[in-house]
């Protein structure tokens, strides 16, 4: 009887691992949710900073599989409790908006908040993310104003093809019309996987 109970418990644990279970943790004042499917881990937290009409998620994606994996900001959507779906903006949309409307103070505040959260994450060390893009962008320009714009463009998660064993990070922007992303949940739908997180 005890052996059967143990086998049953092992079976349940195996099913949970196979299906993936959302894990939640807090770090540096941010609440993270993380989920793994077939070796791909997606992790996110709501950033306290808003930029103009956008709410922002800090996202990290790690490829623990043997094959390349593609991810892009358009794969992210927020489903409100009433069924309303808000799709993430593309990196191009965000960069263009920042170059046209964003002030230096907007950019500095956003970069500071993003870096504070990013460098507090001990579970993921990005090999192909914000820090790499920021260094490359800042190396190309001399003007302080252009450096601020380049740093802002480096924040946005861009379409990325991750080789096995690599990871990336970035900010994903949702146009919220003045409403924070609450009362619903995040869904990430790639070509091969669906990551569905808990209600906020």
How is the secondary structure organized here?
Layout: H1 2-19, E1 23-27, E2 30-37, E3 40-46, E4 54-63, E5 69-71, E6 76-80, E7 85-87, H2 91-101, H3 104-118, H4 130-139, H5 144-155, E8 160-162, E9 167-175, E10 184-189, E11 194-196
Antiparallel strand pairs: 1-2, 2-3, 3-4, 4-9, 5-8, 6-7, 6-10, 10-11
Helix pairs in contact: 3-5, 4-5
Q: Specify the CATH architecture.
A: Sandwich
Q: Helix share of residues?
A: 25-40%
Rg, Cα atoms, Å = 18 Å
**Element order: H for helix, E for strand:** HEEEEEEEHHHHEEEE
Largest sheet: 5 strands, antiparallel
Structural class: alpha+beta
**Strand order within the widest beta sheet:** 1-2-3-4-9
Average of per-residue pLDDT values: 75
Gross morphology is globular
How many domains make up the coordinates?
Answer: 1
Number of helices: 5
End-to-end distance:
41 Å
Strand content: 25-35%
Structural write-up:
There is one protein chain. Helices cover 33% and strands 31% of the residues. By secondary structure, it is of the alpha+beta class. The protein has a single domain, classed as Immunoglobulin-like (Sandwich). The strands form three sheets. It has a five-stranded antiparallel β-sheet with strand order 1-2-3-4-9, with helices on one face. The radius of gyration is 18 Å and the shape is globular.
Top keywords for this entry?
single chain; 200 residues; alpha+beta; Immunoglobulin-like; 5-stranded antiparallel sheet; 4-stranded antiparallel sheet; 5 helices; 11 strands; 33% helix; 31% strand; disordered N terminus
């Amino acid at each position: 009887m005890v052996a059967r109970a143990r086998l049953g418990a092992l079976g349940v644990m195996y099913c949970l691992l196979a299906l993936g279970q959302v894990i939640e943790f807090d770090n540096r004042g941010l609440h993270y949710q993380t989920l793994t499917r077939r070796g791909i881990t997606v992790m996110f937290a709501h950033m306290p900073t808003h930029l103009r009409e956008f709410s922002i998620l800090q996202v990290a994606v790690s490829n623990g599989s043997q094959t390349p994996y593609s991810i892009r900001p358009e794969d992210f959507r927020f489903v409100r409790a009433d069924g309303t779906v808000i799709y993430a903006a593309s990196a191009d949309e965000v960069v263009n908006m920042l170059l046209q409307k964003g002030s230096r103070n907007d950019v500095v505040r956003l970069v500071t908040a993003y870096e504070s959260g990013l460098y507090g994450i001990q579970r993921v060390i990005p090999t192909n993310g914000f820090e790499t893009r920021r260094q490359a962008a800042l190396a190309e320009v001399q003007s302080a104003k252009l450096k601020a714009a380049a740093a802002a463009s480096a924040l946005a998660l861009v379409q990325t093809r991750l080789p096995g064993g690599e990871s990336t990070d970035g900010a994903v922007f949702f146009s919220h019309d003045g409403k924070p992303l609450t009362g619903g949940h995040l869904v990430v739908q790639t070509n091969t996987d669906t990551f569905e997180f808990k209600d906020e």
